[in-house]
Automatic annotation (TrEMBL):
Designated name of the protein: Flagellar motor switch protein FliN
GO biological process: bacterial-type flagellum-dependent cell motility; chemotaxis
Entry annotated with the keyword Membrane: yes
GO cellular component: bacterial-type flagellum basal body; plasma membrane
Cellular location(s): Cell membrane
Family to which the UniProt record says this protein belongs: Belongs to the FliN/MopA/SpaO family.
Membrane topology: Peripheral membrane protein
Example GO molecular function: cytoskeletal motor activity
Keyword Membrane part of the UniProt annotation: yes
């Protein structure tokens, strides 16, 4: 068995973000809408273990939701 088979990576795709007071969040009910700072044309942020690694876009093909990587983000340092 390869050593790489045992490495876990948590992948997160962020559609957008916003800041709101906790009391607004607690008052939200089913079907509530949260407005994000991004628009539908802005790229998604893709994180591996909480580190930004790429940007992408949403694609729907044959009823399947996909995330297409459009840009790799390189860490400078």
């Amino acid at each position: 068995m390869s050593t790489l088979d045992n490495i876990e990576v948590d992948i997160t795709v962020e559609l957008g973000a916003t800041v709101m007071p906790i009391h607004h969040l607690l008052r939200m009910g089913r079907g509530a809408v949260i407005e994000l700072e991004q628009t539908e044309n802005d790229p998604l942020s893709i994180y591996a273990n909480h580190t930004l690694i790429a940007r992408g876009e949403v694609n729907v093909e044959d009823g399947q939701l996909r995330v297409l990587v459009t840009e790799k983000v390189y860490k400078h340092g």
